[in-house]
């Protein structure tokens, strides 16, 4: 058991920054491969015409989740050292909703807007400017809303801990929901495509 | 980089997701943390505020958190380096596929200035929402989702709810 | 129309099958979220007996004075006590918080409490979770007061001890304490504890106030 390598001191801070850039290159590469440098491709998710956002996101989650699960089962990764974003339930619920609105209005999310900028999309550049503005507004509002931001704290809590079931059960449930979701998404896409063909005839 | 050649089709979404998932897993195994994006934006905002009004920035816990981060300076942090990589990786993939093109993406009924205005407004909502939730689709959704964080899954569900709820009102922009 | 022959399946169907199989097999697995550390009580006992898990107050004072930053100093008392006085550069961590406190397994960790009981219990908790670099400040804050802040330097010093006496006096003053001399000087009253902020002369190593951000 010696992973996460950084937290077991296998390499230092400087090396971690180099690795961060390499990891980022991989991240940006696959986002662009998936078509996420295009706002039209991204928002098609919300019109049921192209569910790539859901498919890519959940394939990635399933892959990383299964990888972590089996690596920790094999005793190679120390899960307690892997960062889990702390849960502040209510602010995250509201934040997710606001972010969802921002997604459909702006056409990107912060990560994909960078890929959009890298591939010449000017709307992505404008979106980035908007993100800076939004974060600045948040920063200025922070003293006033800090008590809400820190409300309903539940610390580091995972779905299995919350439901009181084994991690394996949640892993299986996530995979099952994802695969059923993929099948459902593809079915909806095909139906809409057929309807559009019929409408254009 | 305007190329005459037809842009290549996008990758199979499941294979792209598999690739993305392996990158994410690599981050977990090497660093013990996932990916992110909005944190880098926040760092730049915090440094900007600090440059213009240092006392104001250090008196605000939110800015201070980013200013104190990093190995000797806020820019020497994981997310800043990762985000530079994202720009490079995105460009490499786009260039290889002939998809790098200066354009404003918009629906058939939308003007370019109108699209830019919506992009700025949407970006602002995104920035605010991401900070409220403690991360964006990358940090909270993807990374927090893979480690089964309760708040991350709540967040992800609400992103889709917000997106679908707003889609009807935004159809003039996209359809 | 799905074929029964897996060789004719599309790549998507194959991926789905692999994912579902791995997911189903996960039902049988139970990775210990706390990290699979096997607790060797014999080994722990040996460590305790050999007392290699200790740092004396004077050693710690030297470390701080030298500006070393290759260790973490954790104050495991409650928040009020911490606010009243703490050793410079210490991070406040209550026993309850210790379980979730971001520490690296490879780090040298020095724990202290008032005496030695809480820190010893914290030491065990950390050791049990595989933090092999955990050590205890011997005698806790009491020893810090007696040996560093208010050392008894009255004993007749032989020649070779003079240097060490001088060093201890310097350290005491560095941390805002006052050496005792002779039995005439009674035990220092609690009120004499230096203020939390160390005197300007001490160049306390700049310590991260909070751990590095891991979220966005």
Number of DSSP-assigned strands of chain B: 0
Q: Please state the overall shape of chain C, judged from the principal axes of the Cα atoms.
A: elongated
Query: Share of helix among residues of chain B?
Result: 55-70%
Low-confidence stretches of chain C: 183-191, 199-210
Q: Sketch the major β-sheet of chain B.
A: none
Under the CATH scheme, which class of the largest domain in chain C?
Alpha Beta
What is the number of independent domains of chain C? 2
Return the string of H and E elements of chain B: HHHHHHHHH
* SS strand fraction of chain C: 5-15%
Secondary-structure class of chain B: mainly alpha
**What is the mean predicted local confidence, pLDDT of chain B?**
92
CATH topology of the largest domain in chain C: Oxidized Rhodanese, domain 1
The number of helical elements of chain C comes to: 8
Structural account:
The complex is a heterotrimer of chains A (201), B (175) and C (216). Chain A is mainly alpha-helical. Chain A has helices spanning 13-33, 39-43, 52-73, 89-106, 110-118, 122-149, 159-163, 167-200, and strands spanning 87-88, 153-155. Chain A has two domains: 1-84 and 158-201, no CATH class; 89-152, no CATH class. The radius of gyration of chain A is 20 Å and the shape is globular. The termini of chain A are far apart. Chain B folds into two domains: 13-101, no CATH class; 104-175. Chain B contains nine helices and no strands. The radius of gyration of chain B is 19 Å and the shape is globular. The mean pLDDT of chain B is 92. Chain C is 39% helix and 8% strand. The longest helix of chain C is centred in the first third of the chain and has 16 residues, at 11-26. Chain C has eight helices and five strands. Chain C has two domains: 9-137, Oxidized Rhodanese, domain 1; 145-190, no CATH class. A five-stranded parallel β-sheet of chain C has the order 1-5-4-2-3. In chain C, helix 6 (117-128) links the parallel strand 4 (108-112) and strand 5 (134-137). Chain C is elongated and about 95 Å long. Chains in contact: A-B, A-C, B-C.
Describe what is shown at a glance.
The complex is a heterotrimer of chains A (201), B (175) and C (216). By secondary structure, chain A is mainly alpha-helical.
Topology (SSEs and partners):
The complex is a heterotrimer of chains A (201), B (175) and C (216).
Chain A: H1 13-33, H2 39-43, H3 52-73, E1 87-88, H4 89-106, H5 110-118, H6 122-149, E2 153-155, H7 159-163, H8 167-200
Antiparallel strand pairs in A: 1-2
Helix pairs in contact in A: 1-5, 3-8, 5-6
Chain B: H1 13-31, H2 38-52, H3 54-58, H4 61-67, H5 78-96, H6 112-133, H7 137-146, H8 150-167, H9 171-174
Chain C: H1 11-26, H2 41-50, E1 54-55, H3 57-66, E2 71-75, H4 79-84, E3 91-92, H5 95-98, E4 108-112, H6 117-128, E5 134-137, H7 140-149, H8 159-174
Parallel strand pairs in C: 1-5, 2-3, 2-4, 4-5
